[in-house]
Fold:
Amino acid sequence: MLFTAFWILGYHMTEQEQLEVGRVPSKDSAEALVQERNYLQEAFRFFRDFSRNRGALFGLVFLLVLTISAIFANYIFPGNPNTSFLVPRPLPPTLQYPFGTDDVGRNLLELVVYGARTSLTIAFVAGSILALLGTVVGLVAGYYGGLIDGGLMRTADIFLTLPTLPLILLMAALLGPSLLNIMLIIGITNWPFMARLVRSNVLSMTQREFIQIEKVMGASTRRIVFRHLFPNQFSLILVYTSLSLPLVILTEAAIEFLGLAPISISWGFLLNVSTHYWIAGAWWMSFFPGVAIFMTSLAFYLVSEGLKEVLTPTLKRKRDSLVVQLAERK
Amino acid sequence: MGLGKYLLKRSIIALLLIFFVATLNFVIVHLTPGGPATIFLLNPHISAAGRKIVLEQFGLDKPLYVQYEIYIAGMFTGNWGTSYFYNEPAFQVVAQRIPATLLLMVPSLILTILVGGLFGIIGARKPFSFVDRFLSSFAFFFYAMPAFWLGFVLLTFFVLFLHVLPAGGMTSISGGGSVTDIFSHLFLPVVSLTLVNLANFSLLMRSSLMEVMDQNYITTAKGKGLSERLIFFRHAMRNALLPTVTMTGLFVGFLLTGAILTESVFSWPGLGLLTFDSIESRDYPIILSLFFIFSIMIIVANLITDVVYGLLDPRISYD
Amino acid sequence: MQKESSSIDELSAATLGQSERVVLSVQDLSVRFYLQSGVVSAVNHLSFDVEKGTNFGIVGESGSGKTVTALTIMGLVAIPPARVDSGRIMFNSEDLLRKSPNDMRNIRGKRIAMIYQDPMTSLNPVLRVGFQIAESIMVHDKIPRKQAYATAIKLMEAVGIPEPEKRAQAFPHQFSGGMRQRIMIAMALSTDPEILIADEPTTALDVITQAQILSLLKALQKQRNMTVILITHDLGIVAEFCDQVLVMYAGAGMERGTTREIFANPKHPYTKGLLESITRVDKDIKRLNSIPGEIPNLMRPPNGCRFHPRCQYVFQKCLNEEPREFPLPGGGFSKCWLLESDTR
Structure:
């Protein structure tokens, strides 16, 4: 997965951190050696720290199980989910149908597992769009400053003040129901928050001396951006993106629930259909898809909290030394 | 910046935003292939004359900028088109539903701020204590929860299993619209809407309070030998009040979104249910009108919070 | 180790002149922070005395432990994760470290006051300045509001703020940095404390304002016969304003003495190094030497003398044993094995 690559890179100590600890990387060869050893070590250390947070671990496990079941859904439930109906009306949960059946008699458990495909795909794609758009805008705005920054931030502000759900409604209603549209819409409505965060980070970094030094030394813009600014942001981008994933899942479910994107096998749409059958007492039709949405969103949230704990230093606050900061906690 | 100047600036921005939203509306509508009259125009049985009538009725035969003028004028005078479904002026249809939604939103907002705020304060008072961790877990739990699903769960539990509360709608035939009747119908939707937002609000409150407690001026206050309670309630909370005001504006937006979903679940006859229905029936004038009114509500709410913020923050009201 | 320290304290107290009363005595203070990643030894067996009415300077680089010491005296150190592992802080024959939180609160802000480094963020932005100054006396001395306000205005006048009646109603953001620092001073002095701890009060200010604030402090000190503990990393300030100096490094007191002695005749290699790295008006310096190396990681401090990795006079004993505090003729001490031969 994209994310695996992301976190390995994100955990690599940048030059700046090496400087702060007092070890200045002297030559390129030495640096290369240090880097290679770092990856594996860092990866193990990362996992260990991450696992300390039991909630995060649970979330990760859940997501893995979900993803695997989604990918291998057609082995677990052979046959087209649309054709496996028994009786054309909703049946309550039984041993054979643990989640019951829906209005046309399809196995709800199967539908939920297939539905995971939709949700997970949307989550990752929309999340990536979000991350990409936000990062690029944030980097550009933060690095160049001035008019470009001002212009970009005003646009971001407009997006922020516009009410999101109505906008989503409008776009979805008019652009038509499709998977792609949802992913685009969610990505586009959420990027400003990411852009702001990246930008403020970039700003605080450009103030720092080592960037000034690089500029004076005449390093090209690309070098500064890619070798210095970007790697520092990896962890943060990862954390922020994962923090927004619960919202993505919920938004996607809401869009489907309102009928704006009736992708027939998706959790939100299952809930939509269930509204008509609830009165008849078919509570399982709304309960189980909802549980799926809830658990997935919760899992993403727990994982993101875990990532946040591991990747971002908690004492990133004001003034001088670590010791003083600790001293004033009381 | 001076209070007057600040207020003026905020009002102008709000006005511009409303204008922008209206324009956006117009642009999107006319960008869709076929435009607002699509349903009628796609009808294969339509004759040339009939087509002309449709175009005329929708004003689509006029040049774009004229259409725009008419549209904007219409927006500001209350002429928002006619609903396909109800065959009434859209404005009326929408306006009729506003009180019901407000009935849902206002109690939720009050509860969210008061109870959510309280939880946040309790948590921040003794961070990482048992109470704090309990409240925070509770908050995280509801944060990830889809609001509409919570509605279903509550309905299932209270109505199907316990038969305690009514199944939906605002009134029942037997009740006849009395206060208790409405209240019993209002109870579950409000709880459903409030819980999720309350959790979110309490988390924000807590973190903003904790951020304030980290500030240098709190250390100064501690150095003065003031009691912990005095520091928390006088020095810290007054500072935390400012972001709280901003958050309230934000939460009006969240509650609106939540109301849309909650009303759909509970068949509560407000703007949200209208949204749900009009999407199903592809009633474009209504959809667009709803978009417009949602935007206005949020923009106005943000304006009000900006004003209150300006009044409360001495950095703005003085100098 | 502890026995020797206290005898040295008695010795230095004796030689400093028994007529001077020691208002604050830090004895063998050790403060450590117990973190997940390790233990930070921030203050390490620190001892010094402060005489009443003097201006006592604590000099050191960042990370030397000077701020932690100040916070420990004030009782503002967070006890988890920190812990005071040894020592006493005697304030007028009472051990501050043994006091209950309530008692400590009565002392803090009332008898020992502190002003901080960054005036821009150290005042509460939503409370009026006059109130913030008056708050201490309202709370500590239970003085009614009107009277407290009147006192606050008088204080503002004393610290040199023009139009104090009007300005007392203003908010902190309406003042410049120098003015805010003056307000902090007024706030600290409101209860007429015996000791004022000034933690790098001028670091965030420009040079001219710096001079103004320091002379203000000096004048107020004289007026009120107050003891000032001035924490700084700037030797120039020390030379100008302090009567006595404590040089700190890596959490320990390296040398102590009167300003005159320290500058004229530094005994500790670290002090010497510091002095060699600044320019002086009284000497013609062709070249500034910096002390090689860097400050140690307080989680893994060097064995023996903490300064030994950077010391040009280092010898075998320095690597193994931490030096004692050897008393100097003038009344101070130097924590260095070099002086062992002298005392023998």
Notes: Residues 108-144 of chain A form the longest helix (37 residues).
